[in-house]
Design a protein that fits this description.
- Its cofactor is [4Fe-4S] cluster.
- Pathway: Cofactor biosynthesis; thiamine diphosphate biosynthesis.
- Keywords: 4Fe-4S, Iron, Iron-sulfur, Lyase, Metal-binding, S-adenosyl-L-methionine, Thiamine biosynthesis, Zinc.
- It comes from Sandaracinus amylolyticus.
- The chain is an alpha/beta fold.
- The protein folds into two domains: about 375 residues, TIM Barrel (Alpha-Beta Barrel), CATH 3.20.20.540; about 80 residues, no CATH class.
- Helices cover about 40% and strands about 10% of the residues.
- It is built from 22 helices and 14 strands.
- An eight-stranded parallel barrel has the order 5-6-7-8-9-10-11-12, surrounded by six helices. It has a two-stranded antiparallel ribbon with strand order 1-2. Strands 3-4 form a two-stranded antiparallel sheet.
- The longest helix has 24 residues.
- It is globular and about 85 Å long.
- About 0% of the residues have low confidence.
Length: about 600
């Protein structure tokens, strides 16, 4: 039989598996181009804006030049670098760059330095936070996709201790950075506690603190600079500054279905309308840069006019602000300050690539940090799902960091489990994009789990799973012995078991993934017990038996234990499985009649 002429249109030779395993080794993404504008990027569909020809190198501070031989910058005599950007421009590899390279196995310290110097990567690492527990990381398209978790006390819910615990919980479930968006309680104490306890970068929206105890109309430059200085001294790693909302943009908002959904954007819009003046964050941007440079606080240039519904996506207000954010990116680079740019929250799926690539053009490749985006508005309570769909597309088409959305988005303040659900949804989006982009080694984790699954090695299967406890609980709900099939198919219909038995197949035979014939899983942990209680499938008595886990308790002599065909003779197992099916159907029919 001839091989089909239909082969994948792979681009470049990069492979998301470091061992080049499997039968589909490549990616549709562009070939890896670290050091250029197309580092791990999707191919442009027709009509997409082209990458900018400029980088941060085109926006050096006054008095700086570039060495024609080395390509690195020459600063004025006596200049002392402070920010990661300034060190990178001078050709210096900092300890933080070394640490980033250690965490991003596909990058060298020199590549990290060069991406930072070009403005395509930032290392948000406040000098004060580095003196605590901060573990340096990077955000940029040359790195793996990062996710951010939002938390913070509100005027009606939560407090400092709960938010610190939520921060630790979000890091446990994969958050690469955390934003403290507190608007209630003791904001200062909450921020301080979170920073001191956090190993990941912390971001804030300083305007929230600027209006505590005063009306927005009373905001002055002195208050702005004093607040920024105070938070920078505390150790905040990046500030969301809504400097891109201009007076001239406000008329574009008038016909929106949902107006301005950014808290910072709406506050500054009101300030401008009351005073009849330009946004003070825009007018005094250089003074803000000076404060941030002293502590190496990175900009997260806020999207104050982001769309809050599909009807307002990619409108004149949003795109006019994005153009201004490109201008502000250039101004920040001239001051030696690191920059990432925030992006839209609600965007129809078909518009996501355009939004990502327009930012790449206007902001010269500065990292894009997007909220979602949500691809539909009609699933409140499930917006972690509607948004992670858009987030996957956003990361594939150029976003460097994804701001998570939880099930509580639009309806309330997230609690611990909401934080977990949001983080997991966004780890899925980020990892899926990394595999699709062909980042070297991105698929190794998937390949390892595939080998464990093929070998029917349940212990390794759950050890490799992102949330192994949850997966194990679901498995034990049906079968509490690690047998050579799962409850989906049973023994006779298990395709994985059959493939493993075919001598000519490699499936299930990977070295190091062999399994014992039968392994009885351990007793349920408290978390697994809670999962099964919430699901409500098993009775309290059945869950208690799984939590106790003695041979007698799990009915290994009769009933549940005997349905495993590698535990007893296949004929007996088949009969027991059929009897079980009859019992289940009878129970279902009785329930339906009731």
């Amino acid at each position: 039989m001839s091989i089909s002429k239909w082969t994948l249109p792979l681009r470049g030779a990069h492979n998301p598996s470091s061992r080049a395993e499997g039968t589909t080794p490549g990616s549709f993404a562009n070939a890896a181009n670290v050091g250029g504008p197309l580092s791990f990027s999707s191919p442009d569909t027709p009509g997409m804006p082209a990458p900018s020809a400029k980088t941060a190198w085109d926006f050096l501070p006054d008095g700086w030049s570039r060495d024609a031989t080395t390509g690195f910058a020459i600063a004025p005599a006596g200049f002392e670098p402070i920010t990661q950007l300034e060190h990178a421009r001078l050709g210096i590899v900092t300890p933080e760059m070394e640490r980033v390279a250690a965490r991003e196995a596909h990058l060298t310290p020199e590549q990290v330095r060069d991406e930072v110097a070009a403005g395509r990567m930032i290392i948000p690492a406040n000098r004060t936070h580095l003196s605590y527990a901060l573990d340096a990381m990077a955000i940029g398209r040359a790195t793996k996709t990062k996710i951010n978790a939002n938390l913070g006390a509100s005027p009606v819910s939560s407090g400092t201790d709960e938010e610190v615990e939520k921060m630790r919980w979000s890091v446990r479930w994969g958050a690469d950075t955390v934003m403290d968006l507190s608007t209630g309680g003791d904001l200062d104490a909450c921020r301080e506690a979170i920073i001191r306890a956090s190993s990941v970068p912390i971001g804030t929206v300083p305007i929230y603190s600027m209006i505590i105890g005063r009306k927005i109309e009373e905001l002055t430059l002195d208050v702005i600079l004093a607040t920024l200085e105070h938070q920078a001294r505390q150790g905040v790693d990046y500030f969301t500054i809504h400097a891109g909302v201009r007076r001239a943009h406000l008329p574009f908002v008038q016909k929106r279905l949902i107006g301005i959904v950014s808290r910072g954007g709406s506050l500054l819009a009101k300030w401008m309308l009351v005073h009849g003046k330009e946004n003070p964050m825009y007018e005094h941007f250089e003074a803000i840069c000076d404060v941030m440079r002293r502590h190496d606080v990175s900009f997260s240039l806020g999207d104050g006019l982001r769309p809050g519904g599909l009807s307002d996506a990619s409108d004149a207000a949003q795109l006019a602000e994005l153009e201004t954010l490109g201008e502000l990116t250039e101004r920040a680079w001239r001051k030696g300050v690191q920059v990432m740019v925030e992006g839209p929250g609600h965007v129809p799926f078909d518009q996501i690539e355009f939004n990502m690539k327009l930012q790449r053009t206007l902001c010269h490749g500065a990292p894009f940090y997007v909220l979602g985006p949500l691809v539909t508005d009609v699933f409140p309570g499930y917006d972690h799902i509607t948004s992670c769909i858009g987030a996957t597309a956003a990361a594939y088409h150029g976003a460097s960091m994804l701001c998570y959305v939880t099930p509580k988005e639009h309806v309330g303040l997230p609690k611990k489990d909401d934080v977990k659900q949001g983080c997991i949804a966004y780890k899925i989006a980020a990892h899926a994009a990394d595999v699709a982009l062909g980042i070297p080694g991105a698929r190794d984790w998937d390949d390892a789990l595939t080998k464990a699954r093929a070998a029917l090695n349940w212990e390794q299967h759950f050890a490799l799973a992102f949330d192994g406890e949850y997966a194990r609980a679901l498995h034990d709900e049906d079968l509490d012995v690690d047998t050579d099939f799962c409850a989906m198919c049973g023994h006779d219909w298990c395709s994985v078991r059959i493939s493993k038995e075919i001598v000519e197949f490699a499936s299930g035979k990977a070295e190091g993934f062999e399994r014992e014939k039968v392994i009885k899983s351990a007793a349920l942990t408290e978390e697994q017990k809670r999962v099964l209680e919430q699901r409500g499938v098993l009775s309290p008595n059945e869950i208690h038996k799984l939590a106790s886990k003695t041979r007698k308790a799990v009915d290994a002599e009769v009933g549940k234990g005997l349905c495993h065909s590698d535990f007893v003779e296949p004929e007996i197992a088949q009969r027991i499985q059929k009897d079980r099916l009859v019992q289940i159907r009878a129970k279902d029919e009785a329930t339906a009649e009731d």
